[in-house]
Amino acid sequence: MPRLNGALLGLVGILGGVLLALALLLVNFQYRSRTLFVEHERAIEVGRKLLDDQAELEFKVRKASLPGNIVSEAEKLGLVPSTEEESITLIYDKTGRVVTLEEEETLSSERKSQKGGRKMP
Predict the structure, then answer these.
(1) Rounded to 5 degrees, what are φ and ψ at 62?
(2) Model confidence pLDDT, tens digit, residues 35-90
(3) Number of neighbouring beta carbons within 10 Å of residue 99
(4) Tally: H helices and E strands in the chain
(5) What is the maximum span of the chain, computed from C-alpha positions, in angstroms?
(6) d(Cα 26, Cα 32) in Å, to the nearest integer?
(7) Which of 15, 52, 82, 107 has the maximum number of C-beta atoms within 10 A of its C-beta?
């Protein structure tokens, strides 16, 4: 009998050790899952803040891009409105090449004369 009690005591000791190890693993798992949950909540909070910041910045850009605001800010910097004399208009022909106003007028008159010279069947 004493031998059986020693073996049983050893088995209880081993099972107790395994149970203790499993309990420690469970506590560690709970700690890690709680840590991940807190990090996830922080990430959600940062995402919300970034969305709010984005909306605020988009509002500021829309407000700043209004013509009246552009003119007032330009005047604050000492800029004056442009006139037609100071403006350049880029004209592209059919090939995508930039042409001058005189070249465009010449090309337009040539096209008109070609259309007028054709006979319709």
Answers:
(1) -60, -40
(2) 999 999 999 999 999 999 999 999 999 999 898 888 888 889 998 877 777 777 77
(3) 15
(4) 3, 2
(5) 127
(6) 10
(7) 107
Is-contact 98 91, C-beta < 8 A? yes
58/26 Cα distance (integer angstroms): 48
Q: Are β-strands 98-99 and 91-92 bridged in parallel, bridged antiparallel, or unpaired?
A: antiparallel
Q: Using CA atoms, how far apart are residues 93 and 111, in angstroms rounded to an integer?
A: 12
For residue 85, the 8-state DSSP code is: G
92 φ, ψ (degrees, to nearest 5): -110, 135
Contact present, 101 and 91 (Cβ < 8 Å) = yes
Cα–Cα distance list, 14 to 6, 7, 8, 114 (Å): 12, 10, 10, 105
Question: What's the whole-model pTM score?
Answer: 0.47
